[in-house]
C-alpha cells in the first residue's frame, strides 16, 4: 500500500500596510491586528490535522502566521528561503493604489513580457523552488502532514505547477485568499489531490474594508 502524505501551503494573514506599498521581500512588514486573528483561526483549523512538520518563509508576516500553530503543537518551525515571496522590481512602490507610476518611461522595459514576467522573478524559477520545498516537506512528514506558510504568488505558482497548468495568469483570478490553505496530497511521491479551503473567510471579508488589506 502507498503512503499518504499531505503538504498544506498556507498564505500569510493580512499585513499592516496603510500606504499600500508593494512590500515584496522588504523587512518590517508585520501582520495587522486582523491578520493575527487570521493566524489564530488557520492555526486552530490545522491543529486538528496530523501535522508533524512546520515550515515558514523567512519574512515576518509568514513567521507570525505560523506562530499560533507552532505554539499549539509544541513544534519547531523550519525557516526555508525557498518559500519566500517572489522577487519584484516594483518593490517599495505603490503601483497598486497609484498605477499611473507605470507611465514613467524608465519602467517600460519591465512591462514588455507579462508571461515571464519581465518585472520580476521568472515563474519557472518560483515553480522550481516551491516544488523542491514541497518535496522536502513531504519527505520530512512522510505518512503525516506538513504545513508551509508562504505568500500568494509562490503558493499559486506551486499549485499551477502541480496541476500542469501554464504559469501566465490573471492575478485577479488567483484562488489564494489571505490565510487560505492549499492542500497537496501525495501517494508516496505521486500527486494524489489538490484541495483548497478558506478557514478564515469571515475575517477576509472584513479585510477588504481595512486599509492595508
From TrEMBL:
SMART domains associated with the record: PGAM
Gene Ontology terms, MF aspect: phosphatase activity
Entry-linked Pfam families: His_Phos_1
Any one Gene Ontology cellular component term annotated for this protein: cytoplasm
PANTHER family linked to this entry: BROAD-SPECIFICITY PHOSPHATASE YOR283W-RELATED, PHOSPHOGLYCERATE MUTASE
Name this protein carries in UniProt: Broad specificity phosphatase PhoE
